[in-house]
Design brief:
Blueprint: E1 9-15, H1 26-40, E2 43-50, E3 53-59, H2 66-85, E4 95-98, H3 104-112, H4 114-117, H5 123-134
Antiparallel strand pairs: 1-3, 1-4, 2-3
């Protein structure tokens, strides 16, 4: 077969170091992250979050690794924010959960309305619930170190 067809959709989440509210201009950061995605060949379908974390819905090419994408996104956005405002850092870890194409619009809407969701629950509560719903095994004593 000469052609390869893939659909790899990922809902990725990561927070600022110690979940401090360090994202001063979220819309500018979301645009910058979209640009990083373009530069590395990853379609950033949706981006959102609050002052202490980011959600991304990514279309991942079959030639890329999740670890490589996350490293590029976090490293470049962190460098940019340090240049803009100083003293910025991301938490070392992240979550990357697969998304069914049938749920794309639902997940995108969820990501784009993060401020509303966080009126009712914290990032930590949301993160644990996301991992639990997805069946991710984790050590709760080191989850958000």
């Amino acid at each position: 077969m000469e052609q390869t067809y893939t659909v790899n959709l990922l809902h990725c989440v990561f927070s600022t170091k110690q979940r401090k509210p360090l994202i001063a201009a979220p819309k500018k950061l979301w645009n910058y992250v979209r640009g990083i995605g373009r530069n590395i060949g990853v379609d950033v379908i949706a981006v959102g979050g609050t002052a202490n974390h980011v959600h991304l819905l990514l279309a991942v090419p079959s030639t890329c690794t999740v670890a490589g994408i996350m490293q590029d996104l976090k490293t470049n956005s962190s460098r940019h924010l340090n240049e803009q405002q100083g003293e910025f850092g991301w938490h070392d870890g992240y979550a990357a959960i697969s998304v069914s194409p049938s749920q794309l619009q639902r997940v995108a809407a969820y990501i784009e309305h993060q401020a509303e969701h966080h009126r009712a629950r914290t990032f930590e509560e949301e993160y644990v619930a996301m991992l639990d719903r997805s069946g991710v095994q984790y050590d709760s004593s080191h989850l958000l170190d």
